[in-house]
Amino acid sequence: MGSTVEEESNNTTIPQKFVIGVDFGTTFTSVSYFSHPINDRHPRAFPEQLLSIKNWPDDLSSGDAGGTRPQVPTETISSWLLKHWYSPIPLSRDGPEDIDEDGGTLEEFVYADNNHPLTSVGDSNIESQLNCLELDEGSSKFFWGYQVHHQQYRENICRDTITRVKRSKLWLVQTPYTREDRVELVHIIEYLIENHIIRKHGLKDKSDVRDVLDTFTDFLVKVLHHTREQLIQLHNFSHSSVVEFALTVPTIWSPNASRILQTALQTATRVVKFGDMSTKKAIIPYIVSEPEAAAIYMLARDTSVHPGETFIIADCGGGTVDIVTYEIGTEHPLRLSEEKVTPGGDNCGSSYLNENYRKMLLDRLQDEHYLLDIWPAGESLESIVNRFIPNFEDDFKRRKDVTALFGLKTRLHLPGLRQNAEKRFDDGYIVIMKQDWEGVFKPLLERVKNLLNTQLCAALQKNLKVKKVFLLGGFGASPSLRSYLRNYLREMSNRPEVGYEIELKTGNGASGYPVTAVSCGAVLAALNKTNGPARRAQSSYGLFRKELWKPNVPGFEGHENCIPSNCPIDGEKYLLVIDYFVFKGSLIPPRHQFGPWISIHTFTEDHETLTCEELIYVSDEAKYSHYPFDHEYNKDVQIAGRIEFDMTFLKTENKIQKIEDEYGSISKAKPHYRVELAISAELNGMLLEYTAKWPAEIDGEIMSKGQVCVSAAFAPGCA
């Protein structure tokens, strides 16, 4: 059994491995961890042994400089003459580009083609890049997390919100219920791109979900830097420490969405130099779904649920509410079956309570313009109302139960406010009554209830008995939400078609399940990956190839009805295609070899350098090989990996000869050089490694190699 964190921190002689769970939430992010001796091949942790990162900058929850909250707001801003939220100085997000002894690029996300997604052009001056992105405290300071709240609500600095990035995760949830947030985000993202503050990804002339990548990366760089500093202080963490990341994603995310967050985490890890980078291997996060991670953590502490039992996880966070119906598959290790009914979700999390509260106060104060004559110059009704938000966030919304009959009357002190009985104003006070609180809370409570009702009704239609609903997330600790759902479940239990009690499980005490349940559950899942889902690919991977046109050859149906390109060098007809070797929907063993394929590069005799390039593409839709690159089947392809290498030595050392007097299928070839390479790929777990060898024979020498993390290409929970 793995040792406790306390034991580990006292034993500095045994090298430790750190398993770090990252829950990148819509409104809050948490990081949890467990460490064990690196030679412990079967580590085990109990929930009470897991720790979470605290002391986030500007978290004043404890009343001093050291904050106690184990999560940080997922928001970023930056000072720009005290006007804008995001820095006008573009941040470098390029980690060190690892070059192996063969000259091949080992970094999985470094590309140089600006027409393709996930582009990051390398710079020879790596230190200047890192210094640019790392924690510059200069005139364009980059604020993040609690610093954003401090600047907006406590300092009340007036800024242009066009550059404030919040709820960026909803950019990747392409559903009707996130439309309003995405419409707001698209203007922010476009502004940041147009001003060269973040980079454009995907197609240059249209919005793309990948455009949010840099905002994810910038935030995670700060999160991981703080995490590293805390681990150094508390647990003797160092640059040689071995690290494994467990990354959580929503159940409704596409492989593309998971790939974007995966790439942001990989980039941030490289930039921060988080742990041991000496192996020059790609960072391979273990990906697990958010509700499953939460369930693993909760059920590790709750013995009341047994194998075969069906239950509901209601993950009520700050931005979204996700409700999933599960059945326990295996108990040791704890694994859940696939969702029993279609999961439900809505953007009705607790952060929208803040917006309802702000709107309620603004509506009530909209005619009180005389306040601006009393308050300091530069104040507005909006800035006055903003001063009430921290108290609502930290107190009222966590303590008020709007279903209660008594105890809801509240007085907010507002100096200068004139008494008005009709408006429920006392002299210097706003009086908030039960109906005001209901106007803030009930629209969201009703939406959560409707989601739960849909899940329960769908389960009933499938003859599934759901007797327990686990309520978690920050909103899950709300007394109002708890009471509202308990009242609903009581009514549901009394229906004739139900006839049994449905219990609302809220954890221990008023605070409920920890807000770190998801990140902690990710750690537990990563420590024991057995009995996970089948390794069925959710994406296809293929080579970009120049193939001889073979319209009548079986297996090359993709060449039919296509117009080939005439090569002026060798006089042949070619099609530029993608030849897939990992196919969406296929079962792929943990270790598997692909290829080899022969790749031919031709160069005219006056070419000074013989530079070869090989590209790996990924698609979440394609299932057929040998179709042209621009075919409908390949419409969603993205570059996943790239190697570029110089083969000029073959010419200068006379290892290949110039080809003359050769005829192609359409014309006589020009004098040229031909380089034939053997391209092969090998999958090891979630790492896809590919090589280019010359000569193109079994014993050829490796000319270059690359690697791609494919964690996002499989279902969450796959190992």
TrEMBL record:
PANTHER family: CELL SHAPE-DETERMINING PROTEIN MREB, HSP70 FAMILY PROTEIN (AFU_ORTHOLOGUE AFUA_3G13740)
Name of the protein described by the UniProt record: Hsp70 family protein
CDD domains with a match to the protein in the record: ASKHA_NBD_HSP70 (cd10170)
Record's signal peptide: none
Organism in which the protein naturally occurs: Sclerotinia nivalis
Gene3D superfamilies referenced in this protein's UniProt entry, alphabetically: 3.30.420.40, Actin, Chain A, domain 4 (3.90.640.10)
Lineage: Eukaryota, Fungi, Dikarya, Ascomycota, Pezizomycotina
